[in-house]
């Protein structure tokens, strides 16, 4: 018999990176860095040197200096693509030793639309689990940007293992005329923040019934579109409430209907009961394919006082394509999408900083910051500086 000595370094977990490409991607990374998310590495990638200089990410890559001179891609995806290809050596070096990457961008402009598929393709070719998180443009941004977004989405979907799509127009179901751009973009970025945090916690914090990186890879590898949600609940129906909140996010393009592969993780205090877990699982399973491959895990944490957290990662949808059109939503007199969920706002808008308190609920807070238009990927020499 061969006895192998245990190596404690093996429990350090998978190496996860979040890569923001272009203006919108860089801004999403900035908000996550400012919130203090741990367990992942942040990278900002851009053709706009001025925008990149403001990034809070420890690692920055200025794409295609020979092509763009650091002045941006001018909303031209072809320039974004060529710039990323020019910087392929730097990108590959950055990707080395990664186990999982989130590539995030706003579709419709130049750098994100053209460059993100290049970054994702490199990562996937290196055997890295590659998750794309993208926003579709607002309908008011015009036909050209919509066309760019559609073409970019097709290329990006081919380049990633799993894709999470957030249509910007869906924000109209959650806001009123007093909501600023910064508040709206913060709500959108919160989806990426919670998704990365949720996966990082699953990998880095061993559970009583453990879900490891191999489980996540099985569910998300070559899986197409995905739903990734986290919900919290307290009180008598805490587990059921947490499950519902995890799967009912009105900002996501995908929903749980017909999902064939699901990770379902529950975290609660020592008083968490099997009945509570069963009831929460039933909420999730009810919407899935009858033959769903459900991987579940549980963590008992003494710091959870009368609170339960449910994390859901779902892939393999039956009718996803029916919900991916760029149709303009019907709106009421306040400009809100008809049928929207104001309950989501009440769960995500709080009272103080943009991502809320440092507590586990991490509620997005409503404040009155100056409107920030930087999420539009306009080159520095064209953008109005304030």
Read across the widest sheet, the strand sequence of neighbours is: 3-2-1-4-5-6-7-10-8-9
* Elements, N to C (H/E): EHEHEHHHEHEHEHHEHEHEEH
Helical stretch tally: 12
Question: Helicity level, as a percent range?
Answer: 25-40%
Task: State the main characteristics.
disordered C terminus, Rossmann fold, 386 residues, 10 strands, 19% strand, alpha/beta
Short description:
This protein has 386 residues and is α/β, with parallel strands linked by helices. The longest helix has 24 residues, at 181-204.
Overall description:
This protein is α/β, with parallel strands linked by helices. The chain contains twelve helices and ten strands. It has helices at 22-35, 49-53, 65-68, 77-86, 88-95, 111-125, 143-159, 181-204, 213-220, 238-247, 274-285, 342-348; strands at 16-21, 41-46, 59-62, 100-106, 129-136, 162-167, 224-234, 261-268, 293-300, 307-315. The chain has a ten-stranded mixed β-sheet, with helices on both faces. Helix 1 (22-35) crosses helix 6 (111-125) and helix 6 (111-125) runs parallel beside helix 7. The N and C termini lie far apart (70 Å).
List the helices and strands and how they pair.
Blueprint: E1 16-21, H1 22-35, E2 41-46, H2 49-53, E3 59-62, H3 65-68, H4 77-86, H5 88-95, E4 100-106, H6 111-125, E5 129-136, H7 143-159, E6 162-167, H8 181-204, H9 213-220, E7 224-234, H10 238-247, E8 261-268, H11 274-285, E9 293-300, E10 307-315, H12 342-348
Parallel strand pairs: 1-2, 1-4, 2-3, 4-5, 5-6, 6-7, 8-9
Antiparallel strand pairs: 7-10, 8-10
């Amino acid at each position: 018999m061969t006895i192998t000595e245990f190596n404690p370094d093996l429990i350090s977990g998978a190496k996860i990176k979040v890569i923001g490409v272009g203006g919108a991607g860089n801004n999403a990374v900035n908000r996550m860095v400012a919130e203090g998310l741990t367990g992942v590495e942040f990278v900002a990638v851009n053709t706009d040197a001025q925008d990149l200089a403001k990034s809070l990410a420890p690692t920055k890559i200025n794409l295609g200096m020979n092509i763009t001179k650091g002045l941006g891609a001018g909303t031209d995806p072809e320039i974004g693509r060529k710039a990323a290809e020019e910087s392929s050596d730097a990108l590959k070096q950055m990707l080395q030793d990664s186990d999982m990457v989130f590539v995030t961008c706003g579709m419709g402009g130049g750098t994100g639309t053209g460059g993100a598929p290049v970054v994702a393709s490199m990562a996937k070719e290196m055997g890295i689990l590659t998750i794309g998180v993208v926003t579709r443009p607002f309908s008011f941004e015009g036909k050209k940007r919509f066309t760019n977004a559609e073409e970019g989405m097709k290329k990006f979907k081919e380049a990633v293992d799993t894709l999470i799509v957030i249509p910007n127009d869906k924000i109209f179901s959650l806001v009123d005329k007093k909501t600023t751009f910064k508040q709206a973009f913060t709500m959108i970025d919160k989806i990426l923040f919670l998704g990365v945090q949720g996966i990082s916690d699953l990998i880095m914090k061993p559970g009583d019934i453990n879900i490891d990186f191999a489980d996540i890879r099985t569910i998300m590898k070559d899986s197409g579109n995905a739903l990734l949600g986290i919900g919290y609940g307290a009180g008598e129906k805490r587990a059921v409430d947490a499950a519902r909140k995890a799967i009912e996010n009105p900002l996501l393009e995908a929903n749980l209907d017909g999902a064939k592969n699901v990770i379902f993780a529950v975290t609660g205090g020592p008083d968490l009961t099997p009945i509570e877990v069963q009831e929460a699982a039933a909420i999730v399973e009810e919407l899935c394919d009858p033959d769903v491959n459900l991987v579940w895990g549980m963590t008992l944490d003494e710091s959870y006082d009368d609170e339960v957290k449910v994390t859901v990662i779902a892939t393999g949808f039956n009718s996803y394509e029916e919900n991916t059109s760029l149709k303009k939503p019907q709106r009421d007199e306040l400009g809100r999408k008809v049928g929207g969920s104001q309950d989501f706002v009440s769960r995500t808008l709080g009272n103080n900083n943009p991502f809320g308190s440092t507590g586990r609920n991490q509620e997005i807070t409503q404040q009155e910051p100056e409107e920030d238009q930087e999420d539009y990927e306009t080159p520095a020499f064209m953008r109005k500086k304030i």
